[in-house]
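Help!! Second protein's tokens look totally different from the first
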Amino acid sequence: MEAKNSVEGLKQVIGVRGLATTIINGTIGAGIYVLPAIVSIQMGAAGILSYLFCGAMLVAIMLCYAEIGSRVSTSGGSYVYVETAFGPFAGFIINWLYFFGWGILGSAALMNIVADSLSVLIPAFSDPLMRALLYLILLGTMAWVNVRGAKQSVRFLGFITVIKVIPLLGIIIFGFSYVKINNLHWQHLPPVSTLGETVLVLFFAFAGFETSLGASGEIKNPKRTIVRGILLGGVIVFLFYILLQTISQGVLGTQISQFKDAPLAAVAENIVGPVGATVVLMAAMVSCLGNVSGDVLATPRLLFAGAKDGLFPKFLSKVHVRFATPYLAVITYAALIFLFSVSGGFKTLAILASGALLLVYMAVILAMIKLRTKKETAIEKTFRVPGGLLIPFIAIAAITWLLGHLSKKEILSTVIFTAIICVIYFFMKMFKKKKLMPEVADTILSVEE
């Protein structure tokens, strides 16, 4: 059957299985290779509670995304949802928060996992100078490949899902026989503050499902597909993560703190020896590089489009004469990732990225609540989260509680960044008005003549 076209003229070809697959691919990333140790160090065997809380919160957020995604079927994801409900100013802020807070900081956090994993094999990469050199070479290579053309990047990304999922499946399948029940025994319940701090870091691994909704205009029957695709993908991701945490804790126990840079590699070494550890470390690095490479491929194109529309500096819209690529956008984006990669470790960057994304989620949930007031026709009947406003309010409460665990420095940084975005928006608006006035005057004069 021939695919239908959306109102934007795009072919609607993505079904439930396709959407769920992209969510799994986008969510199961490199963070899970190091997070089991971070969770266990902070909460011990009770770390499973942080996964349950994070999973429940994500379900509430996903349901809100499912409702607004079934109602707003144009491409753009979080940005277009917020803009539809609250206008271009709110959409502008969310776009910048997502691009900078989740894109740049998230990729910088993943680059730190690459260095941490490599330092297990080659201790010299624990040195800050060596790490900076590694970042420069890897990001420089990614930028160079993308300046020359996207074809090579697309080919590389095609192998990433298989490479990162197979070792994780192997740990889940073969790891249970190595689990020691005593290692899963809870000594005591952790303080609520510790739970909040742990969930804030863990949230980094669970987030990312919303990226797949950027292609909303190409999803078949979005009112049905988005709901089922989100829930199916979310359930599979949750099962993956909770099984990996249980096996890591069960195999390593209190010794997990000795392997904080690569806990899953340590589990693999227990199962099949040093070869297993090396395979998992390599998979973690490839997974990270795949995620960052995909980001360096896609996000500069958004910068390029935004620069053409006046949302970003004009120089980012320049196209390479020979390769016909947005080369300055690619180089600028890779340079920003490099700067933040050398400025902080994984945990710090993951918390900052999670904080920015939580604000994006909050805005989308508020947009969903506002759009509920718009009446639907019988033909336009869309998915509605059951229980009235209970689930959206639960999601808002959970997000507010997590944001409360940001440090004063992190909160201040977010506030300052948001204020700068607002200034940029109003400056650009004033500049456009001044630019438009002479054009309007010339038009009036020509009409009068």
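Here's the second one for comparison:
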Amino acid sequence: MAVYIKNRNMLAQVFLVIITLGIYTIYWFYQISWEMKNVANDNEASPALWTVLIFIPFGAFYSYYKFSELYEKISVEKFNKWLLFVLYLVFSPAVWFIVQTDMNKRADALRGVIA
């Protein structure tokens, strides 16, 4: 199975978050979770469940932890899952920036291999 990672423009995403009043962040969480699942080749990861759990009290903690755990598996620098998890709770835009920057680098690398 070919791994596809979409290179997302950071400025456009900020604009989308503002225009959709934050709804884009839910879409982003789901999509980036799927991409990370494919990169990690992790059949146990469940992005759809994690996205639904965001709306359930205390379920969001589980979602953010599993997201952080999956990111730790695929991050080039082995970013610590606990640090990412705490960052999610304290200042979530930082998580978006860290994860999206890394995934954009991966997308560029894949495009370089394919092109």
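Reply: Different proteins will give different token patterns, so don't panic. DSSP finds six helices and no strands in the chain.
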